[in-house]
Amino acid sequence: MKSIVVKLAAAFILGVFTPPLSAEALQAGKVYRIGILANISGGIWGPFIEGLRDLGYVEGQNITIEFRSSEGKYERLPDLAAELVRLKVDVIVAPANENVVVAKQATRTIPIIMAGSSDPVGSGLVTSLARPGGNVTGLSLSAPGLAGKQLQLLKEIVPRVSKVAVLWNPTNRAVHSLLGEAKIAARSLGVQLQILEARGPDEFQGAFTAMARERAGALLVFSDGMILLHRTRIADSAAKSRLPAMYGRSEFVGAGGLMSYAPSLGDNLRRAASYVDKILKGAKPADLPVEQPTKFDLVLNLKTAKALGLPIPPSILLQANQVIE
What we know:
Layout: H1 4-13, E1 32-38, H2 46-54, E2 63-69, H3 77-86, E3 91-94, H4 97-106, E4 112-117, E5 136-140, H5 146-157, E6 163-168, H6 176-189, E7 192-197, H7 204-213, E8 218-221, H8 225-229, H9 231-240, E9 245-247, H10 251-254, E10 259-263, H11 265-280, E11 296-301, H12 302-307, H13 314-319, E12 322-324
Parallel strand pairs: 1-2, 1-3, 3-4, 4-5, 6-7, 6-8, 8-9, 9-10, 11-12
Antiparallel strand pairs: 10-11
Helix pairs in contact: 1-2, 2-11, 3-4, 5-6
C-alpha cells in the first residue's frame, strides 16, 4: 500500500542527478527496504524523499519504500508495524511518538528513525539524547521554551487576555513537559491557564463548553496524533467560540486555525533521510545522538484573524514564515 506521494516521488526522481552514497556504494547491487509507519497519506513526505534523493537513493534502483499508513485509525498501527517487520525492512521511519512506540514494540533489532518525537526521553523511547541506546534514534520536536514561546506569541496578538485555555491529551506522555513549560510562562506573562483534557474526540465539546463558562480569552492547543486528526473540528469550534488560538502544528492553520508556532516538520523529515543514510552505511542507532529542532515556523491565517476582528501586529507579521490569506 504505497502512498501516492511515494509513487509521484519516484517519477520526480527519474533523471535527476543523485550524488553521495559510497560506503563501497553500500552493498553493490543491493536494494534496501525503507519502511514508513505513518498516520496519514499525503504530501508531508516530500522532504524526506528529496533528502534521500540528495544522498543518492532512488526508488526502484537502490531502495524500495514500503509505506504503511493507519489513516488515523491508530488501532491499526501494531498490525502495520508487524507487517513491516515481516517484510524485513532495513530501517523503519516513524513520524510521531505513538508510531515510534508501536514500532519499538514490534522490533528490538530493526533500526527505527524518529522523524519528530515530542519528548523521546520522557516517553521512554531513548535513554538520553546523547546516547539513545537500543534501536531508536532520530529527531525530536522538543525544544526548551517552546510552549513559552507559543504563549508569548498568543499574548502579543491578544495583549489584554487574562485567561488562556489549554487543550491537551493527557494520555500522551510526550506532551506533559509542554504543560509544565506553559505554567511557568503563564506566571511571567501574567495570565491564568485553564487546563482542559481531551482523551478522545468525544471530550472536545465538553472542553469548549468549559472554556465558554470560564470565559477564556484565548486557546493554546498542544498537538498530538489524536488531536491533529481532528484539527478541522477543533479549529471550527475555536472559530465558533471566537477564541484566538495557537496550535502546535501548521496543519491546524491550513484547517482554519489562527496561528501555529512549531518546529519545521519538513526540515525534520529531510534531516531524517540522513539518519537512514547512516544506518544503511552501518551505523548503530544507539551511537547516533538524537537531534533537536533547529528550524521553527510561525504560520498565520489572516482570513481567520479578520473573522475574529483581530489585528495582527506588524512585528508578528515580520516573524511569519507563511501567511495564509
